[in-house]
């Protein structure tokens, strides 16, 4: 199955790297694609449980779902996550 999730605060490939690495660890997720320009994440998954956990993980990284409040704390977390993703790409 493929599921699209739209999130806030995605700025670049560094964000995408962090998101991909973390969501790949979910059981049943076989592929994660991130489109920073649209703030879109496409999950290829077998298990519905992955969909239950993904929003919580994304919020903890600073990328809340598009339809929820985007706090200053979320924005700050996303900058840290982005920086980690940029370092992981190098």
From TrEMBL:
<dbReference type="InterPro" id="IPR006121">
    <property type="entry name" value="HMA_dom"/>
</dbReference>
<feature type="domain" description="HMA">
    <location>
        <begin position="1"/>
        <end position="66"/>
    </location>
</feature>
<protein>
    <submittedName>
        <fullName>Copper chaperone CopZ</fullName>
    </submittedName>
</protein>
<dbReference type="Pfam" id="PF00403">
    <property type="entry name" value="HMA"/>
</dbReference>
<dbReference type="InterPro" id="IPR036163">
    <property type="entry name" value="HMA_dom_sf"/>
</dbReference>
<dbReference type="GO" id="GO:0046872">
    <property type="term" value="F:metal ion binding"/>
</dbReference>
């Amino acid at each position: 199955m493929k599921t699209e999730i739209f999130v806030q605060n995605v700025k670049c490939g560094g964000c995408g790297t962090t998101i991909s690495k973390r969501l790949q660890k979910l059981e049943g997720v076989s592929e994660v694609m991130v489109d920073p320009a649209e703030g879109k994440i496409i999950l290829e998954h077998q298990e519905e449980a992955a969909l239950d956990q993904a929003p919580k993980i994304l919020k903890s990284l600073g990328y809340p779902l598009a339809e929820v409040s985007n706090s200053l704390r979320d924005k700050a977390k996303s900058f840290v996550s982005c920086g980690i993703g940029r370092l992981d790409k190098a």
